[in-house]
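Note to self: the last two entries modelled the partners one at a time, which told us nothing about the interface. This time every component goes in together.
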Amino acid sequence: MLEIAHLTKVYPASHGASGRIHVLDDIGLRVPANQFVCLLGASGCGKTTLLRIVAGLTEADSGSITIQGRTVRGPGNDRSLVFQNYGLLPWRSVLGNVEFGLEVRGMGRRERREISRDYIRRVGLAGFEHHYPHQISGGMQQRVALARAFSKDPKILLMDEPFAAVDMQTRERLQDELLQIWTTMQTTVLFVTHSIEEAIYLGDRVVVMTPRPGRISADVLTGLPRPRSEVDVKSLPRFDELRHAIRQALRHEVDVVTANA
Amino acid sequence: MRDTGGLRLVRSILAGERPNLVRFASLAVTLAVWEWYGRSVDPVFMSYPSAIVAAVPALLSTGELQTAFLASMHSLTIGLGLAIVLGTLTGLLMGRYRLVDQLLDIQISALYSTPNVALIPVIILWFGLGLLSKIVIIFLAAFFPIIVNTYSGVRNISRGHVEVALAEGASEAQIFTKIVVPASLPFITTGIRLAVGRAVVGMVVAEMFTAVVGLGGAIVAYGNAFATDKLFVVIILLAVLGVALTELIRFLERRLAPWKETERAD
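The predicted structure of the combined assembly is written out below.
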């Protein structure tokens, strides 16, 4: 279980402006094991900062993060981060990319190759071990990133707007692929997105964040059935309800911000 | 039928669709004109293709061409080799560590901008007329383009790639060897390719101005003896050497950085 308590992050205001920006203001979030949580919000709401703090790439000013009762600081093997555009290293083959995390950890060559090959097979890329990222499709690149993320057997998978840069059709296919692989692996997921539909479609739970100060303004359990690619969840009345409610939550906060500005 | 076929050929030539045919024809015309004109000029001033080809066996049988070539390769290999190793290392450190950059950048820009030839008298004063001077001259010619390219390679590494390593908890040593070095490889090889050209120039100049040996020395000797046909053999050999070395580096670039071609296209 992941528990985030009283997390705060303040940046100095960008040049010229005075004062400080409260990117995250007293954020608290408890995520039970194996839950798929989508962090939703407009740009600047602090969702990516929150994810980076959990990943250990950014330090919080105050507050704590505990995973299964243990306080974490800095990056660790209990968490895997999937970057925007997947963060594959172009000079490494599929196998080289998947084994990268294990290699950094100091695992011996034979052992890490064995584990990596196993995960490559599990994401359906057997036979592509020696291809380079530029030689495979976007969907296959995502699977490489997931194989790398899962190879550490993490408790929490962190994903930073992985589909932000792809077109609608590709995005929908990648979402289904992600869900399918996640079902077989079972981990807790924190998925950052700015798309309402994506958040509802993927998540068990949608956490809505709003900016200045960065706060959680809504926290909704979607209660939609799985597997979602087979049930046509997007045409369920519940999907529309959720979309409406979440849009209201986002819009309301945006109005408040404009009024304050 | 034959007319339309001929017309089609002309059209495709004009459209640039027959590159090898055009190149071959152009080269043949150049050589033919050179041969025709060269034969009408006093051989002291000008040689021509068939005379140059005829001079090759004589040069090979006395062994003078081989000796000159090996002497040149000796200083080129050492000078260029040192420049590649030290230039890459310096560029990597300057690119990654701000302090190293601040310590060296002014000196390096100054030396890079100085015409190499201007330094030759001082180099001879310090290192004499022998092999050492030649190595230093070649080294100075090749060192700076490698540093400068390696440096910009490191500066161009995407923040994302470094963060991939950071997110895995990588140490600075691991980031350096597993991210910084491979990510800047395409820039390093570009630097080496530029350096090779400059090193060959440095080599010839060094051999002309210091103890007269090697291919540069052969040029001076044949020039003084008005052996213009032999002189051209050496010049052509240098041209072939330059092209061969550059192609070798291009081959290595494709082998070492196969991902870069596609990335450039993006």
